[in-house]
Amino acid sequence: MEQQSTQQYTEIDPSRELISSRRVEGTSVVSRDGEKIGEVHSLLINKLTGTVSFALISHGGFLGLNESYHPVPWSVLDYEVDAEGYVTPLTRQELENAPKMKLDDDERPCRWDAEEIEGYYSNLDWWGL
């Protein structure tokens, strides 16, 4: 997957490497076979390191009703110009089975949540490839 990322960056104008989080929000997330499985709702940033840890992916529902929200490790999303979105090894079923989050302020993730989330993804067959 790392090689794929490097190739994509060479196709993007170097003066446009940085992007506002507002432009990331709403971007499609597609599986490797091209199926749209969700959209980026928001980014979860580690306050200590300043790096993006997870993208909160909205999935299902209609016009914002009955959507579910799944934190996905940022490291498994690769922006691809041709796909006009982020490509991931996740399948629809894997996303549906992934840990969910609520959007309330009271439900913000903590370190223990991050460990549970990473535990789910680390058990998938493609993890670490």
Automatic annotation (TrEMBL):
It comes from the Bacteria. SUPFAM superfamilies: PRC-barrel domain. Residues 19-87 form the PRC-barrel domain. This is PRC-barrel domain-containing protein. It comes from uncultured Sphingomonadaceae bacterium.
